Amino acid sequence: MITHYDITVEGKVQGVFYRASTKEKATQLDIKGFVKNQADGAVFIAAEGSPAQLDQLIAWCRQGPPRAMVKNVQFQAGMVKGYERFEVKH
User: Could you report the per-residue pLDDT of 19-28, keeping only the tens digit for each?
Assistant: First the structure.
């Protein structure tokens, strides 16, 4: 069963390759969706996959890439959009 999560990651998560690293991790986990920076300094992720895949992505998000300093990860379920791939949005 495919589930959709909207994930917001706060902390030092811009300028530390968070988006590129998220794309790499999502691709490894076969998760579809996108990641983008937000004006407030957070990173937003729309992710679709199995609950187990999404749990693994959220666990990764709490750490992030080596230079990130994650302070908070919030997520909530949403409507499945049927993304075909995972991409970085600018």
Answer: 999 999 999 9
Q: Is 3-81 in CATH node 3.30.70.100?
A: yes
For residues 31 and 54, is the Cβ–Cβ distance under 8 A? Answer: yes
Q: Tell me whether residue 85 is one of the annotated catalytic residues.
A: no
Is there a catalytic annotation at residue 37? yes
Give me the residue spans of the domains in the chain. Answer: 3-81
Catalytic residue among 19, 62, 67, 85: 19
| 56-82 tens-digit pLDDT | 999 999 999 999 999 999 999 999 999
Rounded to whole angstroms, the Cα distance separating 54 from 2 reads 10
Q: Is the pTM of this model over 0.90?
A: yes
